[in-house]
Amino acid sequence: MKRRTFLSVTEAALMSGPLATQHVDPALIDYFQQQLEGHYRADMFLGPHDLIGTVSTQYQLIDKLVRSASGETRRGLLRVGAAYAALVGWLYQDAGDLGAATFWRGVTQEIAARSRDPHLIAYSLVNLAQVRTDLGDGHGVIDLCEAALDDDRIVPKARVMAMQQQAHGASLTHDRTAVDRLIDAAGKLVSRVDDDLPWGNACRRTPGYLEVQRATCYGRLGLGREAESLWAEVLDAVPATARRDRGVYLARHAAAAAGANEPEQAVELARTAAEIAVETGSARMRRELITLERAMRPWHDAPVGRDLAELLAPVTVRG
């Protein structure tokens, strides 16, 4: 990473101190939590590049306030600050900058540890496991998720997040039995998710959340027919407003169709996914389309293969 880029990534998290003290009203905790929910919603529409600056600047303000706050106000700000750092890390991960994502996941873990909140500490470990998943390190994913699950105090939502992420690790180590076991176990806990924590609410917000994870794992395991069937069910329930998630799912569905020897369907599914990838600038989506491109190699010289290459050309230029 170039030094200038590294500085721009880290400057919001590395303010030197001590800073001038100021009064910190406890009501600011609720303010930042409400803003956070708005950022989650905006992320669904905008993609990473338009939000990184906004969210990291707000994290910087929270860090400044933490240095003046005390008691429960300070701990509350630490908890919300960890959630902001996690979102910055996710935005960098979605933008394809795994170095910056890893840095911010580390910031999340530090702030979570300082907050003494076991649920948030588990969440920070799952965040690190997400980066390990993108790096293809199945054993690293499993190690981190097992560490999160070791704490019996964590809320059901944190357990669901750790189990589904561990399933991704299992798929990277080619263990289908573990994938199904972990997803099924997480499914039994979803109805018990009733906390008011502002982070990690995808399991409540995303239709078919756990079947999305299962379908993704099946695709990674090369189970084309089974993955394709699951994706068809999942996509029927995804609202049009979740445009970027829909694009990712379409790309994964297309790869599953290619794995099931249905190249024409794969290209048709890829058409919309490619449009969304160009529109949002999501590196995650581009990565899924590259996976599709590899799955379509048997038809590289056929008309359907040439159609796919034409569809993906704008994505390659943007990437």
Uncertain regions: pLDDT < 50 for 5+ in a row? Answer: none
The count of β-strands is 0
Give the biggest sheet: none
Rg for CA atoms: 20 Å
Q: What does it look like?
A:
The protein is mainly alpha-helical and 319 residues long. The protein folds into three domains: 1-98 and 108-114; 117-196, Serine Threonine Protein Phosphatase 5, Tetratricopeptide repeat (Alpha Horseshoe); 222-319. The protein contains 16 helices and no strands. The protein has helices at residues 3-10, 27-46, 52-66, 71-94, 98-115, 118-134, 138-149, 156-172, 176-187, 202-205, 209-220, 224-237, 243-259, 263-280, 283-295, 303-318. Helix 4 runs parallel beside helix 6 (118-134) and helix 11 (209-220) packs parallel to helix 13 (243-259). The longest helix has 24 residues, at 71-94. It starts with a helix and ends with a helix. The model has no long low-confidence stretch (mean pLDDT 89).
SSE diagram, text form:
Elements: H1 3-10, H2 27-46, H3 52-66, H4 71-94, H5 98-115, H6 118-134, H7 138-149, H8 156-172, H9 176-187, H10 202-205, H11 209-220, H12 224-237, H13 243-259, H14 263-280, H15 283-295, H16 303-318
Helix pairs in contact: 2-4, 3-4, 4-5, 4-6, 5-6, 6-7, 6-8, 7-8, 8-9, 8-11, 9-11, 11-12, 11-13, 12-13, 13-14, 13-15, 14-15, 14-16
TL;DR of this structure?
This protein has 319 residues and is an all-alpha fold.
Task: List its traits.
single chain, 319 residues, mainly alpha, Serine Threonine Protein Phosphatase 5, Tetratricopeptide repeat, 3 domains, 16 helices, 74% helix
